[in-house]
Amino acid sequence: MKTTRKIEDNQATEAPKNEGNQTNLLIRGIAVSGGVGIGQAVVIERITTDISPRRIIKPEEVSSEIERFTNAVGEAADRLKGIKRGINVDHPLSEHRYIFDTQIMLLHDRMFFDATKKAIAAELQNAEWAISDVITKITAAFDTIEDEYLRERARDIYFVGERVLKILMGVRSETKIHQLPPNSIIVSHDLSPADTVQMAKESVIGFAVDMGGKTSHTAIMARSLKIPAVTGLDRMSSLVQTGDTVIVDGSTGVVIVNPDPDTIFRFRERQEVYRKYHQSLLAFGKLPAVTSDGVRTMRITANIELLDEVEIAISHGSEGIGLFRTEYLFLGRRTAPDEEEQYEAYRHVLARHDPNPVTIRTLDVGGDKISYNLNLAHETNPALGLRAIRLCLSRRDLFKTQLRAILRAAVHGYCRLLLPMISCISEIHLAKEVLEEVKDELAAEGKEFRRDVKLGILVEVPSAVTIADMLAREVDFFSIGTNDLIQYALAIDRVNEHVNYLYDTLHPAVLRLIQQVTNVGQAGGVCVSMCGEMAGDPINIPILLGLGLDELSMNALSIPMVKKLIRSVRMDECLDLTHQVFKMQGAQEIRALMEEWIRTRFPRDYFVGHS
Hints:
- The protein is of the alpha/beta class.
- It folds into 3 domains: 25-45 and 176-260, 3-Layer(bba) Sandwich (Glucose Oxidase, domain 1), CATH 3.50.30.10; 59-168, PtsI, HPr-binding domain (Enzyme I, Chain A, domain 2); 289-610, TIM Barrel, CATH 3.20.20.60.
- It contains 23 helices and 17 strands.
- The chain has helices at 62-85, 98-107, 110-123, 127-143, 148-152, 154-168, 193-198, 217-225, 261-285, 309-315, 339-353, 389-394, 396-409, 425-444, 462-466, 468-471, 482-490, 508-524, 541-547, 559-568, 571-581, 587-601, 603-610; strands at residues 25-28, 30-33, 36-44, 184-188, 204-209, 229-231, 245-249, 254-257, 289-290, 297-304, 321-325, 357-361, 414-419, 454-459, 477-480, 527-530, 551-554.
- The strands form 2 sheets. Strands 1-8-7-3-4-5-6-2 form an 8-stranded mixed β-sheet. It has an 8-stranded parallel beta barrel with strand order 10-11-12-13-14-15-16-17, surrounded by 5 helices.
């Protein structure tokens, strides 16, 4: 009997098909690209590849097996280069061509390339099983990482590994996605960037994918193509059959398989409502975020991590970049990015947004998330270890290179420098010392740079909140990073399914921490912004207005809705709401109040965006 093994270990058992064509089978996932698609499922069977029984090779076969693997890697790189060359400048995904450069680079990354060769040599495995083991280990390691964006990058390793595996096993064809019938809903366990760019885009009206989150390549590309998409559906691809009627609601994360006529009619109406609503909503993105009584104005900016997100931010009304995550420049590569590569990336974003501000966060990862060798000791709890500003101060070569690139790029726009995970004043003092050293070096070299870049800190640990009055004397602005602040303050692991239900932006303790920081900012003349996910959720906006934040930074797609809400409320009612909330004792009570208030004031908007 043939042994079957899949290279993703989370699919050990298959869910049953939707036998009997059960009507109105509802599956919930993650809403990643808005709109409603109603069509016929086309199930893309990813070749998860039947691997023959494990073969132990002889010691004298090691060199030839490694050569066989190396040749397959070379062929995989050639195929990816061919796909990239086929994406012309008029293609709607042309700005995403860099993804293929990343995957080509990952083919030779030590996490994949060196580890596979080592497995072949040390464990005497044939190449297919060595690849499978390496991918399984990488996926398991990345699954423990808290940051969603970084977890999603493990999918890149999966895709390149699968590509090499198919070559080794003689599977020569790409996934058949370039010839599709009209009104196709693509259903798949996962979609690689190669799948997406090669599909018949005019025929596709929705994505329903088992894997991925809001920062996955599937999500990013779906938003660029303006195709409704839901990810994180677990095992939906094993429940659906090609030809099933499927509804994909990318606004709420709901997928319905084999809907009855009444459900189809209801979602046809919703489809039209969403189309008209979204069209009208975009106009609000171009307007200033000022309360209806003209009392309060907030700057609304965007969070970005990829260069192609710059245009999305601008088109949705961003008034700058409130958080430019620079980690993507450092991840999935064999060496750190040099000064010129970083300079070009920062320059592009700054020049495109000038004169609006761009807040560039310095490297915010730990050694566990960087593939090249930093010679760092293993950490049992990296979330509380050598990461962010701590890593930068311990590896000043990395830090100085990034600071040099930022200061040079700052001459092309309004640049703000953000230091992550500051927990004490000494960290600011040390960072300032390095910053001054860099300025002196650039001046001595005669290079053009900007000296007066605004300096801020990311307030994301409780200690920074408690000494905010002291920190305010050292910096120009605060940016509240609610994602980590909530986690650290409430002692809750956001990615632990056993306790993540306790993670709540409206917990009274969280609101009081934010209040303390804003009070300090107002007293000391320090601008206070918020860049966590909390900033883009309409349910929080009236309270954040009442607390007096100066700036909110969010996913660009949230900007029009947030601006519309701000322009529709009076400042006195926001203050009254905030006063009520601070008398309440629990997050559930606060959330119930805010949900009812939003429903009452904005019934149509609440329906379209959240029902």
